[in-house]
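Section 5.1 Outputs to date
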Amino acid sequence: MQNVLRQHAEQQFAEELEELKKQDTQTKPLNWLLSPQAVVTYLVGGKLANGYHIMPKYIGNRRLMEIAVATLTTDRALLLYGLPGTAKSWVSEHLAAAISGDSTLLVQGTAGTGEEAVRYGWNYARLLAVGPVPDALVETPVMRAMKDGKIARVEELTRIGSDVQDTLITILSEKTLPIPELNTEVQAVKGFNVIATANNRDKGVNDLSSALKRRFNTVILPVPNTLEEEVEIVQQRVNSFSKTMELPLEKPIGEEVKRIVTIFRELRSGLSLDGKNKLKSPSGTLSTAEAISVMNSGIALSHHFGDGSIKADDLASGILGAVVKDPVQDKIVWQEYLETVMKQREGWKDIYRSCRDMM
């Protein structure tokens, strides 16, 4: 597993999950790896009774994670909702890893996702040869989760067409999956539930029907409340990336992370941190995830084409790519920000010059 580009959460944090399992004295729902209390500890971090430290996976309001976990102990599915880049997929993966020990039962929603990706499909060679028999059936992640009493994940639910979305209604309300071709059904085993993620900012969004909405409890994941909180999230994820990709950091990156996050927060809010300058906002979301991406790209540039010490030149192209999505309107917004805020800020001359030279 050492050469895998990206390990699943249950593999990457196997030691933490095992330690939590050993120390867990609370009641566990049937087919859960950990108790609800231990799942929340896994997500938000903390120190166990034996002194073992659990790294936080979600930095934010603990109560949101408690609500999410409590929802999954009921017969209601969980919908993680928010702007792009607010860690919905990250939280979904870690919830499934901590509850089921398996985060791989995943349906990735796209405009082309069909009904057979949610319910079941057929091996057509087998189907033509012998007709509709059980071994010609192709199980989906949702069907396997129902059979095994695990968590199924549906990413970007609102990108799936409305008619396909509604195939979840029977699964979520009746906890069964009818297979009329075989005159049978799959009944969900205790422990089964669904975590879906959705946002309302991307193009191609399909609103959920009211019938489907009623089957979910919705938890809205907000953008980080403070600059410090967002800096901590970005720095933690970037440090993890550098270890995974074997790109050693030659010096602390805290100051560079703070500058990127400050730029993104100011442009998002339309106001400079000191409140003195009103700003236009670009068309993109400038999410925490994009800040992480800019830093990761900068680390790769500095390692392969620099001295390994991340500099403003390594970050400028990533910032420009994140901010300027519309080459006309966003470029004007960015130039105005450069001249009215970045140029005037003490200690930012290097990043101002690098960003200006990229225009």
